[in-house]
Structure formats: C-alpha cells, structure tokens
Amino acid sequence: MKYALIGCGRISPNHLEAALNNNLEIVGICDIIPEHMDILLEKVGVAKDKIKHYTDYHEMLQKEKPELVAIATESGKHAKIALDCLDLGANLIIEKPISLSLEDADNIIKKSKEKGLVVCANHQNRFNKSIQKIRKAVEDGSFGKMLYGTAHIRWNRGKDYYTQAPWRGTWEQDGGALMNQCIHNIDLLRWMMGDEVTEVCAYTDNLNHDYIEAEDLGMAIVKFKNGSYGIIEGTTDIYPKNLEETLYLFGRKGTVKAGGKSVNIIEEWLFENEKENPEKVKQENSEMPKNIYGFGHTPLYKNVITAIQNHTKPLVDAEAGKRALELVLAIYKSAAEGRPVKLPLDKCSTTDFIGRFK
Fold first, then answer.
1. Fewer Cβ neighbours under 10 Å: the N or C end of the chain?
2. Which domain holds residue 59?
3. Do residues 123 and 324 make contact, with C-beta atoms less than 8 angstroms apart?
4. How many Cβ atoms are within 10 Å of 344's Cβ, its own excluded?
5. In angstroms, rounded to a whole number, what is the distance separating the alpha carbons of residues 58 and 128?
6. How many folded domains does the chain comprise?
C-alpha cells in the first residue's frame, strides 16, 4: 500500500516508524521546511535518498498517488489538507485533533463517505495494552452500571516548546492544553463512559503562560446520557516536568485506574466478579514507553490498513475524532460563557474564543 506523510515535526517519527513497521510503501514525505524531512529520516534511521522529499503536498499527491496519507501538520491545517487528500482518493490518518471546528469535521466525514474512503483520527492511546484491557471490561459489563470516571492530565510545557513552533497555543492553529495535550485522555473518558454527552460545565484559564493565547488549565464536569458523570482536569502548569496522565473508572461492581505518563499502566483493578488475578492483569497489560506518545501508532496503523482492505470502519473513525473535538469545544464554550452547555453542539470553533484571555 502506497503511503505518504505530510508534516515532519515533533510527532512525525512515530508515524514513519509505524508505516515502516506495517511494511507500507513510503512514496513520499512532505514539509514546507526541507531540513525537517532530513531530521525526520535521521531519527528513524532511513537514508535521506531512500524517500522522495516534497515541499508542496499537492505535487506529492499528484505525482505519487498514495493510497494512505498521514497528516501531522499544525492542527489548524488538518481540515484543508484532509479535504484535498480525499478529493484525490487517499485514505487518511489525521493527527489529533481531526480539525479545529465542528463544521470542518463534518465536511471531512461527509466527503469521506461520498468517496468511500477511510478516515482515522490519531488517538493512539486507545491501542495501549492497558486501555484495550479496560475497554474489554467495559464491553463485557464487568463494571455493572457506570457511575463516573475522571481524566487527569498533569503535564508541563515551557516557553521553549511554544517557541519551537509559534502556531502552538494560538486559537487559529491550535487551542490550548485541552485541545493539544489533553484531548487523548478526553477521548478515552468519553469512549469508556458511553460516548453520548448531554451537558458540560467548565472553567478554563491561563495561569502561567502569558505568551500564548489559549488556556493552560481546564476543569470540567461532564454529564453523560446514560446517567453517569465525568470529571476532566487538564494542565500544562505542573512543575518541573510531566507528572502523570490518569484515567479512573468507577462502576457499581468495579474500579479501575490507568496511570503512568500516558495511561499505559494499570494501577488498580478491582471487580466484584473477579475472573483473573489482579496482579497478573496489571503485569501483563502495562507498558513503559520511552515517551508520552506510547506504542499505539503501530497498532493504529495496522487497524487502519485492515479497515481499508476490508472496507470496514477503523477503531477511531472520523466520527470518534469529531466527538473528542466536540467535548473540548464544549468545555471552551461553557467556560467562556460562564454557564453549562448542552450537547450536541451545532457550530463551534477554536477561533470563536480569540481574545478570551487578553
């Protein structure tokens, strides 16, 4: 399967390694800054002359005609590039978030259906061993009635991070901590708790990053249609480095905690009808990745390739990407308007909040 990558920044090595691990035919990589492509290939141990370089993705798409394209540019450009790729018949893996507006997400979903193409939102933490194990317990009813769940993302981002890529922290191209760093765990919370959200009540603020436009702290209470609740706490203010990313799930008959740097470790596993040894479950379903991105890209790619070949939906389809986006936007809207917000949202975009913290 012919594969191409658009955007060769911070997350791109995970994408290229996943493509290599899945034996894809890499026909091109693209970045508007040529040296980014050479740096990427050096990081993954591929000779510079082995893969074609492009600075114009339109040219790459026309010449190489890839069947699968990964989009790993700044968030604000995801939607435009995605629609261009779909027009030319490419299936997609789009880095989170799928877009920065609900209208753009809807356009991606609509066009992918019209073209009969697969679109995956890159929420790779769904493929963590810990998360897969927990999801199975949700699906087989081990928790009983779900009561509530909590997502905590306690990370650090300093000035150097934003200086490296000036689009970060802007409303037009990114959003803040919730949209960039916390959306993975927000996706997991929504997925585990039944997906359908009816109301959100939230606060956001910029406490420690006066050089960015968006929030560095967000706190929200989420009400799900099934009667359960969620709590979200996300920040990039933790001193002096990333502390943890945790997901708690509480049901009438079960309690689970996934922790570590990126919910990659099962720390608590307690069920009324316990069929397995809890310590064995923790040991066999915990991983220690070298960074916060984990090991999820390779299985995510495999899942997408299978979906393309079998004409099925990937685990994290475009609709799932939209749901994660919608929940973050609902938090922004509730915080900005100082009131609870009902879901589903109609139209909403990060650009609606320009000037929020001035």
1. C
2. 2-125+297-316
3. yes
4. 12
5. 34
6. 2
Of the chain, the percentage scoring pLDDT greater than 90 comes to: 96
Residue 202 CA to residue 231 CA, distance in Å, equals: 10
Are 281 and 193 found together in one domain? Answer: yes
Q: What is the pLDDT of residues 229-245, one digit of tens each?
A: 999 999 999 999 999 99
Spatial separation of the C-alpha atoms in residues 217 and 86, rounded to whole Å: 35
Q: Is the CB of residue 27 less than 8 Å from the CB of residue 59?
A: no
DSSP state of 33: S
Q: 111 with 185, same domain? A: no
Residue 205 sits in the same domain as residue 340: yes
Which among 109, 110, 122, 57 has a CA at the least distance from the CA of 88? 57
Query: What gap in Å lies between CA 58 and CA 262, rounded to an integer?
Result: 35
Residues sharing a CB contact under 8 Å with residue 226, sequence separation 6 or more, in sequence order: 146, 193, 194, 196
Distance between CA atoms of residues 11 and 44, nearest Å: 12
Q: Which residues contact 338 (CB under 8 A, 6 or more apart)?
A: none
Whether 331 has a pLDDT exceeding 70, the answer reads yes
Strands 2-6 and 25-30: parallel
Specify whether 137 is located in the same domain as 215. Answer: yes
> What angle (nearest 5°) sits at the alpha carbon of residue 128, between those of residues 312 and 183?
85
Determine contact, residues 201/333, Cβ cutoff 8 Å. no
| 155 lies in the same domain as 282 | yes
Is residue 152 very low, low, confident or very high in pLDDT (cuts 50, 70, 90)? very high
Work out the pLDDT band at 292, boundaries 50, 70, 90. Answer: low
Q: Are residues 110 and 183 in the same domain?
A: no
Confidence of residue 291 (pLDDT cuts 50, 70, 90): low
Preceding peptide of 166 cis, ω within 30°: no
DSSP code, position 344: S
Q: Is 199 among the domain residues?
A: yes
Q: Could you give the CA distance from residue 72 to residue 254 in angstroms, rounded to a whole number?
A: 38
